[in-house]
Write a structure and sequence with these properties.
The complex is a heterodimer of chains A (298) and B (273). By secondary structure, chain A is an alpha/beta fold. Chain A contains eleven helices and 13 strands. In chain A, β6, α6 and β7 form a beta-alpha-beta unit. Chain A starts with a strand and ends with a helix. Chain B is mainly alpha-helical. The longest helix of chain B is centred in the middle third of the chain and has 34 residues. The two termini of chain B are 24 Å apart. The chains are: A alpha/beta (298), B mainly alpha (273). Chains A and B meet through α2, β5 and α3 of A and α1 and α5 of B.
Chain lengths: 298, 273
């Protein structure tokens, strides 16, 4: 399958500052890719290059066989900027109708689009009176216009409440199921964890990790945390049996490398009745993210 | 085409809500009425009809007011989008930059046209009501109307260019006011003082006509005064109207809007969101 977005060896410099260095990435149709990185890691710069808003210093980007910024590429790509902004004097409906016209779509779809993002009630109010979350919804509505082959979403769920976030990801799932590729950046790592197929971590303009979540877990080889709750009075016994464990609020916390996980679990099982409960906590995406973005190695 | 028209409709709506339409219409209506009423007094001695005299006054008014209105409407066009943060999204849409500019131009030009037609219409109505022979002045008024709209297009284009060049609307507003003062007020003063200092030398005979044609506001005034033969009613640098052939000032009036819009397109192309 040919990919919707292909980036090869992309470099962007602003004068002396290297914003992106040697980034290569491809996104297949229907694939949802999350772009993670600190502020200033180069996420927004990468998105702007994909959209053709700024030129790359070197390297190549193709979107559905077109160059970024060309008419064909712009027809294929929908964009949601970070902190979506609109003219405050227009109503949500007027703004959406305008965006429909710019994409050559039927303007009568505007109300249906706003309903889809839960903004039908406020459609005839001026955007100047909207909250941040409502503006973000207008941004989502315009990103859904037409049948974009690639959605570029910069912090799409910022300003949305948890329920709206879930609805938003459900919309994305629909689009992805129909073959749209999705590239989104987010700071809400837990959402990204559940809702994307692949994760790309940028650090200081370099791609430091790329892969599915289990893939990244395996590669990072971070220690697994184990929380053992002892039956009344057996905590000291267990602590003796498990060197390195520390007592926190009546539970024993210990960590072990991935390779020793099963062996450690066996030892705990061997303690029999002394153990009331056991929790195994795999490294979270936060841990992985910290590991890769600090380590800076592939 | 749909993209340009939708942009124009959106911009017109914004201007309507920002009261720009009301301000432009009210300004033109009030000033035109005042001039039509005041200009009706001293006609007998000049041997021309009242409307022709009013057209001469309206010409002087338009030289100041039309560029001012045009710059006020256009300074925010690009810098405002940049500051609000709406430009990156707009430029990610399948609309060319020139189409965005053309859409804005259509809306702003429509507002100026409405204002000009309202002002001139009121002036004509008042003058014709008091002096039936004033129909002789209608061709001059018509000429003033379309050349005013072209003058507006010129300054809209220049305003878009300034708006593209400055990063903030406040900066663009400063540049716009500066440009207005420079081209409309100080330019003439500088020319007059140069002529006085030159005392009929090379500057007065060779450089002065070129300098007048190079300034869109002066060319507009020259064109209207020359065409209506109303130089007797004009003062200041407008008095030079007889010395410059009509086709030259007409060419300047026609070419400036194109040049200004080309400038705007070039400046907008350089904007990186």
């Amino acid at each position: 399958m040919t990919s919707t977005l292909t980036i090869s060896d992309l470099t962007k410099r602003f004068g002396e500052v290297a914003a992106l260095t040697g980034v290569s990435l491809s996104v297949a149709p229907g694939e949802r890719v999350a772009l993670l990185g600190h502020n200033g890691a180069g996420k927004s710069t990468l998105m702007k290059i994909i959209l053709g808003l700024i030129p790359a210093t070197s390297g190549a980007v193709t979107i559905c066989d077109a160059t970024p910024g060309s008419a064909a590429a712009r027809r294929a790509v929908a964009y949601l900027p970070e902190n979506a902004a609109f003219h405050p004097a227009l109503t949500g409906l007027e703004q959406t109708r305008h965006y429909l016209a710019l994409r050559g779509e039927d303007q009568s779809q505007a109300m249906a689009l706003l309903e889809k993002v839960g903004l039908a009630q406020a459609a005839r109010r001026r955007i100047g009176t909207y909250s941040k979350g409502m503006r973000q919804r207008v941004g989502l509505a315009q990103a859904l216009i037409g049948h974009p082959r690639l959605l570029v979403l910069d912090e799409p769920t910022s300003g949305l409440d948890p329920v709206s976030r879930r609805e938003f990801y459900a919309l994305l799932d629909d689009l992805a199921a129909k073959g749209a590729s999705i590239l989104l950046s987010s700071h809400a790592l837990t959402e990204v964890e559940a809702r994307t197929d692949r994760i790309v971590i940028l650090s200081k303009g370099r791609m430091v990790a790329e892969g599915s979540l289990p893939d990244l877990r395996r590669r990072a080889d971070l220690p697994v945390a184990l929380h053992v709750t002892a039956r009344n009075g057996y905590a000291p016994d267990i602590a003796r049996a498990l060197p390195g464990a520390i007592l926190v609020d009546g539970a024993l916390h210990l960590t072990c490398p991935q390779a020793e996980k099963l062996e450690t679990l066996g030892r705990i099982a061997g303690l029999g009745d002394k153990v009331a409960d056991l929790e195994v906590l795999p490294p979270s995406l936060e841990d992985l993210y910290a590991h890769f973005s600090q380590g800076g190695l592939q | 085409m749909i993209r340009i028209l939708s942009t124009a409709r959106t911009e017109f709506r914004i201007a309507l809500r920002n009261r720009w339409v009301a301000i432009a219409l009210a300004l033109m209506a009030v000033f035109s009425l005042v001039l039509a009423l005041a200009g009706s007094a001293p006609t007998g001695g000049l041997g021309v009809d009242r409307l022709s005299v009013t057209v001469a006054s309206l010409t002087s008014l338009s030289v100041y007011l039309i560029p001012l209105l045009a710059l006020l409407m256009s300074f925010d066009a690009i810098a405002g989008e940049t500051e609000r943060g709406t430009l990156p999204l707009l430029l990610a849409y399948p609309i060319a930059r020139w189409e965005i500019l053309l859409g804005k131009l259509l809306a702003h030009l429509a507002i100026l046209t409405l204002a000009v037609l309202l002002g001139h219409g009121l002036a004509a109505a008042v003058t014709l009501w008091s002096d039936p022979t004033a129909v002789q002045g209608l061709p001059a008024l018509w000429r003033l109307s379309w050349s005013s709209i072209l003058l507006g297009a010129t300054f809209l284009g220049v305003g878009y260019a300034l708006s593209s060049l400055s990063r903030r609307p406040s900066g663009a507003a400063g540049l716009a006011v500066g440009l207005w003062l420079g081209l409309v007020v100080l330019y003439d003063l500088a020319l007059l003082s140069a002529i006085v200092a030159d005392n009929g030398g090379w500057f007065t005979t060779d450089a002065f006509p070129v300098a007048l044609l190079a300034n869109p506001a002066d060319a507009f005034r020259l064109f209207n005064l020359t065409a209506s033969g109303a130089t007797a009613a004009a003062a200041g640098v407008g008095g030079a109207a007889d010395a410059i052939p009509l086709w030259q000032s007409l060419a300047s009036v026609l070419l400036w809007p194109l040049a200004a819009l080309a400038l705007a397109a070039a400046a907008f192309r350089k904007v990186t969101p």
